[in-house]
Every structure is written in C-alpha cells, then in structure tokens.
Amino acid sequence: MEKFLKRKEPSSSGISSGISQPSSTSSMPMEIDLNDLPWDPSERKKITEYHPNQRDEIRRKYLIRGPCQPRGHDFPRTKGRRFCPSWFDQYDSFAKQGASDAFVTEGFNSWNKTDRFGRHVGDVSSFHNRALKNCEDLMRQDQSIAVAFHKQTDIIKNEHRIRLNASIDAIRYLLNGALPFRGHDESEKSFYRGNFLELIKLIRERDETVRNVTLQNAPGNNQMVAPSIQKDIVDCFAQEILKSTFEEIGDDVFGLLVDESSDVSKKEQMAVVLRYVTCGVVKERFVGLVHSAIESLFAEYGLSLTKVRGQGYDGASNMRGEFNGLKALIMNENKSAYYVHCFAHQLQLVIVAVAKKHHGAVNFFELLSVLMNVVCASCKRKDMLIESQKEKVEKAIGSGEIETGSGLNQELSLVRAGDTRWGSHYKTLLRLVDLFPCVIEVLQYVENSCDNSTSVWQARGVHIYLKSYDFVFYLHLMLHILGVTNSLSQALQKKDQDILNAISLVKITKEKLQEFRVDGFEPLLEKVSSFCGKYDIETVNMEDDYVDPKRRRHKTNITHRHYYEYDCFNTVMDMQIQEFGDRFSEASSELILCMAALNPRDLFCDFDRSKLLKLSEFYPDDFSSAERMSFDHELGLYISSVQEDERFAKLKGISDLARVMVEKRKHATFPLVYRLLKLALVLPVATASVERCFSAMKLVKSDLRNRIADDFLNGCVICAIEREALAQMYPRPHWAHTNLRQFWAEARLLKHAAQGRSPRTSRMRPQGSNSEKRRDREKGKRGWGGWVTSSKESVWESQWNKTQSSSAVYPMNLMASRDHRVAWAADGLRN
Questions:
Q1: Which residues sit opposite 789 in a β-bridge?
Q2: How far apart are the first and last CA of the chain?
Q3: How would you label 14-38 residue by residue, b for 16+ Cβ within 10 Å and e otherwise?
Q4: 741-790 pLDDT per residue, tens
Q5: DSSP alpha helices (H): ranges in 188-226?
Q6: Which fold has domain 232-342+687-726?
Q7: What is the pLDDT of residues 328-349, one digit of tens each?
C-alpha cells in the first residue's frame, strides 16, 4: 500500500499539543543488535516499547538464551530470608533478576507455598499452557503464518528457475543480434507475437521441461514475460558488461572518446567510449549514451575526471570550443587530459577540402552526384544496370577475358558517396570504373525513353561529361589519391591503434603523395589513354593548344600538357600535401615528439632518455618528484635490458611493446616505463569506435522502434556493441547465472528499500534454523555489487541455496548509483 500512498508525517502542531506517536509504530524500525539485548530481566524494556516487526525476533532471542539463573550471585536478604538458588534445579524455567529481589515483574516470595506453581500451570487451556504453546510455535518458524505464506517447495523453485532462464536465454539472443523484442499483436490469438514470445515458444517446443512451466502453463502472475521483466533483464546484462569494463579499468587512467548524433526520433545524445590499457592490451569499450552532462555518467559509475589522460572528438565546435566546449571544461579540471583531434576525421577533411577548392575537382564530384541521382533514381534503372552488367560478364566469360571462381564476378551497384562516410568516395570511384559501360547504357536509355525533361537533360549532360577526356583524367587522379589515403583510413579506424603508429602512417602517406607528385604524371597519362581507348573516348594531343571550354574564343597560350600537368595535377597534389601538413599538426607537438622516444622499432633507435624524462613532466599527477628522480636510473636499466633481449627485436610499435612487456613480466621490473607506455597508449587516435556505436544505435532504434525508452535503448546498445563481453557471461550452470541472479536480487532489495518496505526475497528462499541464519549473516561482507558471502558466493546463490534472516540487508552503496536504473516493479516475480 505504501507504494501508492505516502505516509503522512506528524505535524508540528500535533507535537506541541502533546499528541505524540509511539516509537513502536514508526514505519522504519530502528536497527537493534540482538546480541546486545540485556540478559537481566530487571534491565529489559517492555516488549511493547519495540517496533511490532521486531518483537518476535526479540522474544526468540531471549528464548534461545534461556532463563536468567545467576547461581553464584549474592541475593539480598529481606526479613532474614533470601532466594535460594536450589529452586533453579527444581524449577528450571525460573528467571531471577540480578539487580532486584524478584524473578518476574511483581515477584514471588511465598516459597513455603510452592504448590501454587502447580495451580498456576493449570489444565491444558490455562493461560500458562497457552503461553507455553505460543512460545513453542514462535520457536518453530516453519509453522509460522509468515513462513507458511511464503514457503515454497523445491518443485515451485525449480519451475521459477526454468522460466527465468528461458527468458534470459531468449533476451540474450535478441540483444546479441540487436533485434526488437515486442510485436504489434502479442495476444494469444496472434500468429506472430513478437520475437521474444516466439523465441520462448521455440524453446518450449524443443524442451518438454520448459514447456510444462512456461506461458499458459505458468501462474498468471509469474510468467516472466512481461515487458517490465524484459527491460529489467536487459538492464542486468548491461550492468554486468559495464561492471566488467570498470573492473578492468580499476583505479587506472583512461582516455575519453565522445561524439554526438541524433537518432530517428531527432533526439540528440552523446556516445561515450573509454580507452584504456589492461594487461598490455589497448581496449576501447562503450559505456553508454548520455543525454545531459558527461559528469553525471562519471558520478553514476564512480569514475573521476582526474583519471582522464586523453580526449578525442570529431572536431565539432561544441566538443572542442576554446571557452565553452567539452575539451576546455575537462582541461580546467585536469591539465593532463590532452586533446587529440580524430585522425580519421582530419583525413576526411583533407579529401573534402580538395573537392571544395579546386574547380576541376569540384565539377567532377558535383557531376558525380548528379550521376547517382539519375542512375539510382528508380528501381527500374538499377535493374537495368544489373542486367547490363550480367550480360557483359557472361560475354567476357565466353570470350575468356575474365575467369570464373568463388567470389569472382559478383553483382555490383553504384554507391553514393558522403562527406562523413570514410572511404565512401574511393568505393564509389572503383564501382564507376567497373560499371562504366553499363552506366553509359543506362544514361542513353534515360535520354531516349524518359518523359521527364529534367531527367533527360541531366542524363544528357552527365553522358557528355563521362565521355570526355577531362572526366577520365580526374577519375584516375582522384582514384589514385583516394587509394593511397584509403589504406591510412582503414588503419586509423582500428581500436588498438596507437598515436605514434598513426603519426608514422600519416608521414608515410604524405611521402607517397609527394613521390606521386614528382613521378606520377606520365604513368597517370598512360592509364587515362588506356581507359579512353577501351571505351572509345576521344583523347587529346598534349602538344596542342588548350582551349578553355567556357571561353573558346579566348587564347590561353598553354598546351594541354601544361594545363593537365600544372593546372590540374600539380595543383591538386599540392593542395593534398598542404592539407596533410595543416590538418595533422599533432606530429610536431612537443608531447608527440617526446613520445616518439618510446618507439621500439629498429632496436629502439629513437630512444632518448632526455625526451622521456621530459615526457614524465607532462603528467605531474602520475609521477612524483621522487619517482622522476629514480626514473632516470630505471631508463638506463630498461634500455640495456630490452636491447639485449631478442624478443624485443621485431616490435612494430608501442602497442606491441606494452603487450610483450606484460608477457615477459618486465612491466613489474620497470613499472615507471610501463606507466609511461600506458599514458601514451590511452591517447585516442580516432573516434571510429564511437561512430560504430551510432551505427548500432540505428539498428536498435529504427523507424519501427522510434518510441523506445532511453534506459532500454542504452541497455540494448551496450549489449549490441560489446558482444564479446556479452558472450563471456556464458557458458553458465544449467539453472543459474551467478552474476545476473546476483544483480537481480540486489535490484529487488533496492526497489523495496526505496519504497520503505520489507523485501519479498523471503518468497524466493527456503527457510532454515536461526543458527544457520545467524551464521550466514555473521559471515557476510560487502562487495562491489552489494552483499556477498566470505566464500565469494553471489548474493543470489546465498539467498537461494542458504538462508538469511528476515531482516533485509540493503546495499546502500548501490542505491546511490543504480536505483533509478533498476526499477524492479515486477510483481509477477512473486511465487
């Protein structure tokens, strides 16, 4: 009832007028240590002074202790007489007060008339015998009303376990595939009741044990298929995944990767990924979607901004603004949280910059976009493209021009490029080269058969451009540039990529572009001429005068070679090389230059002790003054050790160095060097992991699921992204998964604690003796997830297989962080 009605607090007027509420009627009883209850009856409080929910426990404690019979006590004399301890032998139920001369409230002093005790006992229905019977019933808990109401047989408990595990297995399968749970019509008459219920039905069909206790064969209030139950189990999975992540991080440093996006319902949120090092391996793990401040996420999971050692964003102004952006806010809290602009995003900006600055490249990409609109405007044109490709492939196979085999000659289609899709331009150009004759056929069809004049003129203009030498030249030029940068783009998107290797790859890519600028023009002309000859495209004589197509009467005084080599080729390449230098400015920063001394390539040829000592000064919170003094000595021992060890001879980067150091136990020998390695590794390289999170979010929150709640969405996305952690929860015992059951029991305790009422976990456990309960309570101790036993057994198994007292133990350390996330309003869980 207190779930729906709030108890009215006593008013101040009531107190001033003398109206007071007795302490025994308080909704929340004061905690009492039963072991501290006074033994002497004279010191005991009246039982009515205790809370009603505590009285039976107090009575039971006194009965277990037995009567107070002080044998060696010097009893006071009254009129020359005093109490004789020998009466204890004859009447073993006597309880004598030590502080006064009475063994009950009013006392008994007519010891010459002991026959009164027999009359007091009386017949079977006497007050004394009724009280004795009540005492015996109180000690026999298995016959009490509360126990009888909550008592469950092993059969009922096993049936509940079967239902719970069936729901857990079905939900795990749906989470792993980012599949929806609910159906449009979940009634029993529906032919498809949604993925979750259909999976339960499939499990029932294959297992008779499950079939006998689930769905229509289960109690109406304990079927374990309600939407609230589904959401709570999803949250359990998500919390267990996050628990494993935070356990791996521990009290270590980490990097922060954040990006912002909107879902199908136009709601904006930030995806947060943590980058850290565990056992020498770099990991990037998704921790949740944030709709407000990131600080709230840190507070919820006990993280600290002082442990952030790297920030990585995509360059948006609200992320890295100098005054009010996230970068500045974190830097104000922690000066060691160095910011690194996403390398993959910078690479994309390099490509886009050329497409927007050079007039020839601008015209090329704009007409390419028009081509996509014309060819891919309808399903009919797409089918024509596929049929044309099929005919040409069959003809080529018949003539022996191409070979057949597994994976060869696959069906292709044009792919629309996007400014924010890394590598999409390169894929589009590759498809255009492969499907060039098929694209020409579709354009000719649109010109001759389409009724829409706009489409006809667009197709005609694009057709003319595609058959020009200018188009073929830019096609092969951009294809080569994007091919060189695509390898860099793929490498930058790796989760375990480190900052030094990324800068090395950028440097290599820039050198390749420089080489192509110097020696690549003639080979490019040969490819262009070969392509033109293959598809009957008119070529130009490089020694003829160049005529500007927009100003044909104006003499340019330059040849075609001069135009294509200097005005087109060299200009585009210079723009690319200059953009690389401007965008990737991190390579020249002092922090990165110092980190380069950690590189293990070529037997640590870049090792520089002074740079590493300087690098330690960038992290004043990680290296004390005393450690920096001993760091110089440790560096000397470190470089001598690794240069003499052949296992460190072929390492390619600091990621390999950290991994091998842990494998060979050198991270314990040189802890300061390994600490510096971890600081270098947590610096983010790219936000590709965050982008993948948004891809998973779009799978979970689709157009058909655009009303999914934020907490449920967050749990589903965590499980869909961190599939490896989700899979590590299995295999499990047939009837129980310890972690999920532990969290399930804790969540129920949190729910009832927040509502101010006693938990219902007693419905789920067998009863035991008082001594067993007391022993289990005394063995308990705090853990990460609440209350666990000293043998590291989960709270679920402790409640299920053992016993515990009726007084609840509330994990208050969890209540402050997860009570709003685990609203276990699952009354159907009661058996």
A1: 780
A2: 19
A3: eeeeeeeeeeeeeeeeeeeebeeee
A4: 555 555 555 544 444 444 443 333 333 444 444 444 444 433 333 333 33
A5: 195-206, 208-211
A6: Nucleotidyltransferase; domain 5 (3.30.420)
A7: 778 888 888 888 887 877 887 7
